[in-house]
Design goal:
The protein is an all-alpha fold. The protein has one domain. Helices cover 78% and strands 0% of the residues.
Length: 317
C-alpha cells in the first residue's frame, strides 16, 4: 500500500508542479522547447547517451564483480539501457533498476546479491555527482553560490558523524549486522583497490556527458550564455532530477525556471531549456525500448523452439 502511495505521490506531485508552471507562464515555453528540438540535438543526445550508458554499465559490472556476481559488459549495457527506458517511462522512477537487478540475479542464481550490486552502483554514482556539484557550485557563480559554504560544512559534519557511528558500533543486533553487511559491500564492491578508480572515472564521465547534454539543450533553446555560467545550472538540474518525480518532469522545469530567473536569463527560457533537455534524455534512452522488444521476442520464440517435434527416428532421452 505504501509503495502504491509513493508512486501515486510522484505522479500527482509532478502533475501539480507542471500545472502551476503552466498557470504561471502559460504553455508557450513548453511548446517553444518542443519546437526548438532539432535533428542535431537529438543526434548529440543519442551519441552522448551511448557514452553515459556504457560508463554506467561498466560501473555496474565492476561493482557486481566486487560482490561476487559475474556480469558481462554487453549484457550490462543492454540491461542498463532497458532500465533507463523503464525509469523514464513508468511511474516510480526505479522500476527499471529493480528489473535489471532481479533479471541479473536470476541469471546468476543470486537475486539478493545482484540487487545489492544495483543499489551500490547507483549509490556510487550519486556520491560522485554530489561531490562534483559541490565543487562546481563552490567555484562558479550561481543562484545558490552564497549558500554553498554552509552546505559544504553541513556535509562534512554529516560524514564525520557517519564515520564516528561506524567506529562506535557495538553488539550483534540487527542494526549492527546490517551495518556490517553494508560496510562489507562498500569495502568489496566500491573501495577495493581495483574498483574505486574505474568507478570514480565512469561516474565522472557520466556527469560530464549529462552536463554537455544540458549545455547543448540550452543552446538549442536559444540561450547564449557562456558555458561557465551554464555549468552550475547543469549540475543543479542533475541534483533536482534525483528527487522523486516522473522522469524528472515537473521538478526539473520548476528548478530551472527559478534558477534562470535568479540568474537573469529569464524563467520562461529556463522552462524551455528544461523541456529540450527532457526530450533529449528521453531520446537517449530509446535503445532500451529496442532491448525490451528483442527480449520479448526471445521469450516468445524460446518455448516454441522447445516444443518443436523431434525428427522421425530420433529417440527420446
Amino acid at each position: 500500500m505504501s509503495r502504491a502511495l509513493w508512486t501515486w505521490g510522484r505522479l500527482v506531485g509532478s502533475a501539480v508542479i507542471l500545472t502551476i508552471l503552466i498557470w504561471r507562464f502559460g504553455a508557450t515555453p513548453f511548446l517553444e522547447g518542443i519546437r526548438a528540438v532539432d535533428a542535431g540535438a537529438l543526434l548529440a543526445a543519442a551519441g552522448l547517451g551511448v557514452l553515459t550508458t556504457v560508463c554506467c554499465a561498466w560501473r555496474w559490472k565492476i561493482v557486481a564483480g566486487g560482490l561476487g556476481v559475474d556480469l558481462r559488459l554487453p549484457a550490462a549495457v543492454a540491461g542498463y539501457y532497458r532500465a533507463l527506458f523503464l525509469n523514464l517511462t513508468l511511474p516510480g522512477g526505479i522500476i527499471g533498476d529493480v528489473h535489471r537487478g532481479v533479471s541479473h540475479g536470476r541469471d546468476v542464481n543470486d537475486v539478493g546479491r545482484a540487487l545489492r550490486a544495483v543499489v551500490w552502483e547507483r549509490f556510487a554514482g550519486q556520491v560522485v555527482l554530489f561531490a562534483l556539484a559541490l565543487v562546481v557550485l563552490l567555484a562558479l557563480p550561481s543562484p545558490v553560490h552564497s549558500f554553498m559554504p554552509l552546505v559544504a560544512i553541513a556535509l562534512a559534519a554529516a560524514v564525520a558523524c557517519v564515520v564516528l557511528v561506524a567506529r562506535a558500533r557495538h553488539g550483534g543486533g540487527r542494526f549492527a549486522r546490517a551495518w556490517g553487511a553494508a560496510a562489507g559491500d562498500i569495502r568489496e564492491g566500491l573501495l577495493a583497490r581495483r574498483a574505486w578508480l574505474p568507478i570514480a572515472l565512469a561516474s565522472v564521465l557520466f556527469v560530464c556527458g549529462h552536463a554537455v547534454t544540458f549545455l547543448i539543450a540550452a543552446r538549442t533553446a536559444g540561450v547564449a550564455a557562456p558555458p561557465s555560467r551554464m555549468l552550475p545550472l547543469a549540475l543543479l538540474v542533475m541534483l533536482v532530477m534525483v528527487l522523486p518525480s516522473v522522469a524528472g518532469w515537473g521538478p526539473r522545469e520548476a528548478a530551472l525556471a527559478w534558477a534562470f530567473g535568479a540568474a537573469g536569463l529569464g524563467a520562461q527560457q529556463g522552462v524551455a531549456t528544461a523541456v529540450v533537455y527532457g526530450v533529449m534524455v528521453l531520446v537517449a534512452s530509446l535503445p532500451g525500448a529496442v532491448v525490451l522488444v528483442v527480449t520479448w521476442f526471445r521469450r516468445i520464440l524460446r518455448p516454441r523452439r522447445s516444443e518443436r517435434p523431434l525428427p522421425e527416428g530420433t529417440a527420446h532421452a
